[in-house]
Structures are given as C-alpha cells and as structure tokens.
Amino acid sequence: MPQTAKILIVEDDAHIRRLLHATMQRAGYDVVEAAAARQALSLLDIERPDVVLLDLGLPDRDGLELIEPIRLRSAATLIVVTARDESAEKVAALDLGADDYVTKPFDTEELLARIRTALRHQRAIAAGELVTVVEAGDVHIDMDRRRVTRDGSEVHLTPKEYGVLVELAKRPDRVLSHAQLLRTVWGPAHVERVEYLRIVVRGLRQKLEKDPARPRLIVNELAVGYRLLLREAG
Ligand code: CA
Per-domain residue ranges for the chain? Predict the structure, then answer.
C-alpha cells in the first residue's frame, strides 16, 4: 500500500485555505496548512509534504521568494497558485523551480489532476523507473529507440522537432516555459528566440495532431510555454 500523500497548503486567505483543505481531504490526502511564509518553511521540515500548493500573495513575503528555499529543503512537487493571471509571474515561478501553476479562480478537478500527475511522476522516480516510452493519444514516443509513431506508422521529425517533443514527453502533463525549452533544445544563447520554438511546434502539430489548428496534444499556455497532454488515466 502506498503511503497517503501529504499536501502542504500555503495560503493566507482563510476561506480559500479551508476550501482547498476540504477538497484535498475528500480526495484522500493528508493536509497541513500554513497562512504565512515563515510557518510554511518550518512545516516543510517537520511535515515533509509530497506536494506544496503555494499562494504567491502572502502577507509576510512574496511567494516567489519562497520557491528557492523550498527547492533547497524539499523534493516536494511545487505548484504555484496565483490570483494574478500574469504570464510574467508564472514564467518567473517556473524559472525559479516551481513545477507547475494554477490560476485562481482555479478548477478543482484541474488542480487534483495536476497533483495526481505530480505524485505519479514522484512514485516512478522513487521506484527507479526511468520512463522512456510515452503514449499521448495515438502518438507513441520511444525515447530509447528515438522513434515516434502515430497510429502505428513512423513519423519523421526534424532533430529540433524531436528535441522539443522529448523535452515535453519527459514531463508529461506539466508546463515547460518557452525559455526552458529553448535553453535545452537550442542552447542558452537562444532563450529569447520564441519564434524558433513556434515554428518547430507548428511542424510537430502538423505531423502529430488530428487537427493542427485545434491542438489537443501539444497545448499552449498563453505567453508561458507548452504542455504535452496525455490521456488522463481513470
Ligand atoms: Ca493570498
């Protein structure tokens, strides 16, 4: 039996905190909560949560400033909860080491799906499973054999298309910022060249999506980055 996962909720708004607490409890998680940054850091050491939900607007410190200290102390998955629908803030959070984000008012089902994805990924790592094959809809990505098929037939990708697809496939269902993708696939000198990435993603969609104009596989996170969606299991 896997141990019950523990979620640390860092949120100063008592109403949202209670709502999140109830939602997480109903989903079967252990829950601990903090209303301020200082309390969050001490709970991190004591409670050793598996997932941290971090509100960015905290009374004692900007939530963005908490990301690095959390990363240094804990292997927990860090999901930022932001009220402000500002892409710059989301990009900053990802670059500082957050794993993902949701925007308030958030969809509870979406948040629970993000948590399930994170926990699945953590368990695979803990079990020493190196994920090298990813199935996304009718697309099959085999990273060992460098082979991508769609409905069973091989798809020929350019090296950059393959590079971007593999980076997304290594973190399925999670967002990767434009800069993260550009840094890894093109190199640090090209992190600003979002147009390179757009062209490659367009090519990938032409080859992999049923309707490239309405992507279901490689989806946009407006002004932030991209996400490779797998079919939600269960
Ligand atoms: Ca707040």
Answer: 6-126, 133-228
The least confident of 7-21, 104-118, 157-171 is 104-118
CATH number corresponding to 6-126: 3.40.50.2300
Compute the distance from residue 56 Cα to the ligand 1 centre, in Å: 6
Domain 133-228's class?
Answer: mainly alpha
Closest Cα to residue 139, out of 177, 183, 172? 172
pLDDT of residue 231: 66
pLDDT digits (tens, 9 = 90+) for 149-176: 999 999 999 999 999 999 999 988 889 9
Distance in Å, CA 86 to ligand 1 centroid: 15
Look up residue 52 and give its two tokens: 């941290």
Q: How far is the CA of 136 from the centre of ligand 1 (A)?
A: 35
Measure the CA–CA gap between 116 and 233, rounded to whole angstroms: 10
CA of 103 to the centre of ligand 1 (A): 12
